[in-house]
Amino acid sequence: MDKNFNYSSLKLGIIGGGQLGKIMSQKAKKMGFHVTILDPTFNCPAAQVSDNHIMGGFHDKKKLEQLVKETDVTTFELEHVDTSILKELFDQGYNIHPSPYVMELIQNKYEQKKLLDERGIPVPAYKDVKTKEDLAAFGFPVIQKAKLGGYDGKGVQMLKTQEEANTIALETESFIEELVDIDKELAIIVARNIEGEIKCYPVVEMLFDERVNICDSVMAPARISKEIEEKAIKISTESIKALDGVGIFGVELFLNKKGEVLVNEIAPRPHNSGHYTVEACATSQFEQIIRAVTNLPLGSTKLISPAVMVNLLGEEGYEGEPFIEGIHEALEIPELSFHFYGKSITKPFRKMGHITVLDDNIDIALEKANKAKNILKIKGSKKI
């Protein structure tokens, strides 16, 4: 796609119709682009704001081919897709970004880690698992990870003893990692366009809901030294160069107690840690991915205001049609933005929306966000 392309008629394809695809579509529509999404769920979040919805699964080769051939550029809001047909189409010259080859590599967390390690990117110590005896290679406790299919804490198991290794270990292709002595969990959104231009967003700090290992809150900027910030930016930039990726990448990092920064894993799409960019940055991650994959100049990643983002998860004990409790009281909090994704069914810990709170003082932003978090509850029509 060259600079003389008629952008007024650009057709964008998005594989995936969840909340990430929804906000991507909204940003693409703001730029005047035609948006087609592919998702198996009727009236999924992205379908509510897009021009066309191809109903199909992410491993449906015919529907994937239809999407690619009916659009000028195809991108992703999730990584768990069939790459075989996409690789064929990419090799024929269709615009698919990130490339299906990058997506295939990132799908396999072991291969992803191996590539980064080979390119000199610091990662936790890791080892392929062939037998149950391999689980004890670093001693206990140790982290076992599924090579394929893991997300939001799924496909990750801490093993504290040999007995647990024998009884609760994941029964799938996996590898192990040392248990990192974590000081903070950090993340950074890195954008890279077709011409190789790279821009980084601020380093953020992630706080997790330990019940399900899902990111609970994000603080931007992270409460770290300038030295750690520069180290995180350099490592993350080098990681995306190593992948030769085009688009938006969420790089998850560990800062250990020794002050070392290690890459945990990379998501080849908009990332939960970048939701705050909609209100807090000059260009959101959702507009940035559109710019990156359509060969437009990347936008400014300037942080306009410190911000805290909190995920709104479905309440424990409820499922069914969602009901938002506390919205009036929460929206009285100054500089709070409320996002509800439009999912028709809520379940315990399902991501149903998020809030972003701005304040010149990050600690006050966190106070306001925690106040709102305690007020807002997403409950379902049925108790379980």
General description of the model:
Belongs to the PurK/PurT family. GO terms for molecular function: 5-(carboxyamino)imidazole ribonucleotide synthase activity; ATP binding; metal ion binding; phosphoribosylaminoimidazole carboxylase activity. Its EC number is 6.3.4.18. The chain has helices spanning 19-30, 61-70, 84-91, 100-107, 109-118, 162-167, 226-243, 277-280, 285-293, 327-330, 362-375, and strands spanning 11-15, 34-39, 52-55, 73-76, 126-128, 142-146, 156-159, 174-178, 182-192, 198-200, 204-209, 214-220, 247-256, 261-267, 307-313, 318-325, 336-340, 351-358, 377-383. By secondary structure, it is an alpha+beta fold. The protein folds into 3 domains: 7-96, Rossmann fold; 125-178, ATP-grasp fold, A domain (Dna Ligase, domain 1), CATH 3.30.1490.20; 182-383, ATP-grasp fold, B domain (D-amino Acid Aminotransferase, Chain A, domain 1). Strands 9, 10, 11, 12, 13, 14, 15, 17 and 18 form a 9-stranded antiparallel β-sheet that branches. A 4-stranded parallel β-sheet has the order 3-2-1-4, with helices on both faces. It has a 4-stranded antiparallel β-sheet with strand order 5-8-6-7. Strand 9 (182-192) and strand 10 (198-200) form a beta hairpin. The chain is globular, with a radius of gyration of 21 Å. The model has no long low-confidence stretch (mean pLDDT 95).
Rounded to the nearest angstrom, the radius of gyration is 21 Å
> Which percent band covers the strand fraction?
25-35%
Unreliable segments of 5+ consecutive residues:
none
Distance between the termini: 51 Å
Organism: Halarcobacter mediterraneus
EC number: 6.3.4.18
Protein name: N5-carboxyaminoimidazole ribonucleotide synthase
Subunit structure: Homodimer.
